[in-house]
């Protein structure tokens, strides 16, 4: 049989593992939700922009081929360029 100290030590280790598991799952879900939000926001922004149909198609295809990178590039490069180009 295990001693009382060994049992308490194992119980504490199991509790710690559960906490880390919850943090890992919660963090993963948070990152996934942020990714989905970024992707959907990029698609809405692309479709609502003043770009021509061909350029919208290029940005949408890029967003679907590389969802994270395409969406990020839209907000960093494409959107400001679209505002400058059609603000005149």
From TrEMBL:
This is Cardiolipin synthase N-terminal domain-containing protein. It comes from Saccharopolyspora gregorii. Pfam families: PLDc_N (PF13396). The keyword Manganese does not apply. InterPro entries: CLS_N (IPR027379). Residues 38-79 form the Cardiolipin synthase N-terminal domain. Keywords: Cell membrane, Membrane, Transmembrane, Transmembrane helix. The keyword Transmembrane applies. It is found in: Cell membrane. Its main location: membrane. It is a multi-pass membrane protein. The chain crosses the membrane at residues 21-51, 57-78.
């Amino acid at each position: 049989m295990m001693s009382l100290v060994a049992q308490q030590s194992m119980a504490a280790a199991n509790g710690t593992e559960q906490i880390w598991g919850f943090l890992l799952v919660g963090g993963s879900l948070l990152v996934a939700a942020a990714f989905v939000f970024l992707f959907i926001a990029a698609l809405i922004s692309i479709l609502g922009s003043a770009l021509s149909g061909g350029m919208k198609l290029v940005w949408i295809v890029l967003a679907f081929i590389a969802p994270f990178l395409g969406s990020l590039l839209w907000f960093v490069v494409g959107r400001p360029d679209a505002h400058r180009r059609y603000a005149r």
